[in-house]
Amino acid sequence: MTPNPLDMALDFTRDIYSVARLASEARAVLDGSFPSIWVRGEVSNLALPASGHCYFSLKDEAAQVRCAMFRAKRLLLAFKPQNGQQVLVRARVTLYEARSEFQLVVEHMEPGGEGALRLELERLKRRLAAEGLFDEAAKRPLPSFPRQVGLITSPTGAAVHDLLTVLGRRCPALPVLIYPTAVQGATAAASLVAALRLANARAECDVLILARGGGSLEDLNAFNDESLARAIRASRIPVVSGVGHEVDTTIADLAADRRGATPSAAAELVAPSAEHLGTRVTALYARLRHLEGRLIEGAGLRLAAVLRHLTLLHPAARLEQRAQHLDDLDRRLTQAMDQRLHSVRARLEPRAIRLTAASPARRLGLAAAAVDALAQRLHWAQSHALAQLHERLGRAVAGLDGRSPLATLARGYAIVTRLPDGAILRRPDQAPPGTRIAARLAQGMIHARVESN
Question: For the segment 397-452, what is each residue's pLDDT rounded down to a tens digit?
Fold first, then answer.
C-alpha cells in the first residue's frame, strides 16, 4: 500500500513518544513531585528472593500499591515482615519502567499498631534492664506478717474484688487500705505514680499491691510506663504486682519486688493463711514452753547450790567432822593390828612354803593352774579376734551405708533433675523460671515447675 503523502507530512509535525520514553518521563515526573512520604497499610504478596531484596504490596480497604525494599535497607529491619501485618513505611514514589508500574521504594519500615507498641516496649525493657532496674539483688523481701496491706488499683474494677476476696479468705483480720487510681487511659500512668508516692508518704502499710485485670497491650500500657517503673524501685515499701493474666508481663511486673501472675496470685503472696498462722502460733507456744522449762531448771540448780552452801555452815556439819575424825582413829587402830598380824604371818609363811613345796599336790595344782591359764588365754584370744573382726565388719557396713545415696535421701535430701533431659541441677541458674523438674526422694519422685529463683 502506498503511503499517504498527507500522513507522512503530519508525522513530521507530531511529537511521537516511544513506550520507553513515556515510562522514563513519567518516572521523572513522579520522582520530582513527591518527597519522601510515610504510608500505612497491610502487607500482602510478600516475596523474599535470594537476592536479599523484599517485594510486597501495601493495601488498605480501597487500594493497593507495589513496594520494593532493597537488600541494604532490609538488613536494617528490627523485625521480619509477614503477610497480613500492619506496617508503617517511609518511601519514595517512583515508577518501575520495565513494566511501567507505579511503586514505592521503601527506605524504612516498622510494625504498625500493637506491633510498634511491642517493639518500643522491648526497647524500653532492654534499656531499663541495662540500668539494673530489674536486678533481683535490689528487690526487697516481703513481710511475713504485714500489719496492713495497701491496694493501688481501680476501686470499681474486677481486680479489687478478687484481691479483697483472697485477702479475706486467707487472713480475715488483715486490714486493707485502697489507694484509688486510674488503670487505663492517657492519665493512668501518672495516676499510678501519684498513688504510689502517696502510699509511701503516708507510710500506713507494710506492703503494696499494684493490680488491674487483663486486657490488650494498649489497655496495659500504663503499667509499661518508665516513670512507674522508677517509682516502684524508689518506693520504701515493698511492691507486689498483679497485672493482667499469667501471659501478660509488664515493665511494672519486672520492676516490682514480687510478681503475681494475676491479682489473686498477688494477694496469695502477701496474705499469710490462717492455717500458716495457726502453725506459727503452735510453734511459738512450744518454744515458750521449752524456754520456761529451761528457766525453771536453771532456777532449781541455783537453789540447790545455795542449799549446799547453807548445809556447810550448819552446826551439824561440825559434828560430822568430829565423827569423821573418830572414824579415822578407828581405821588407824585397825591398820596397826593388821600390821602386827602381818608380821607374825611373815615369820610363819616361809615354813609353810617349804612344807607346801615338798607336797606333790602343789605340783599338780601348778600344772592345773597352768592349764587353766592357757585355756583362759586361748578363750581370750578367740574372743578378742572375733571382736576385732566384728568391729571391722561393723565399720565396713557403716561406711557402705554412709556412702549409699539412699542413706543421703533418707536424711531428707533429694536429687533434682531437669526435664526432659534429666540433667542433675547443682545451681539455681540451671533451672530458669518455667523449667519442669523432678525430685528423687528416698521413696518416690516429685514433679514440679520452677516459679522463681
Answer: 877 776 777 777 777 788 889 988 888 888 888 888 888 999 888 788 888 998 88
- CB neighbours (10 Å) of residue 143? 15
CA distances from 401 to 99, 222, 342 (A): 86, 60, 61
Domain boundaries, the chain: 17-112, 118-272, 276-315, 410-449
Instruction: Judge: domain 118-272, CATH 3.40.50.300.
Output: no
Class of 17-112 in CATH: mainly beta
Q: Taking Cα atoms as reference points, which of 357, 183, 382 lies closest to residue 263? A: 183
Instruction: Please report the pLDDT score of residue 145 as a whole number.
Output: 83
pLDDT tens by residue, 40-87 = 888 999 999 998 899 999 998 889 999 999 999 998 887 788 888 888
pTM of the model: 0.43
Contact 69, 54 (CB under 8 A): yes
**Residue 198 buriedness (CB in 10 A; 0-12 / 13-18 / 19+):** middle
How far, in Å, CA of 129 to CA of 150, rounded? 27
Cβ atoms 89, 36 nearer than 8 A: no
Q: Which residue has the cell 528416698?
A: 442
> Alpha-carbon distance 19 to 24, whole Å?
9
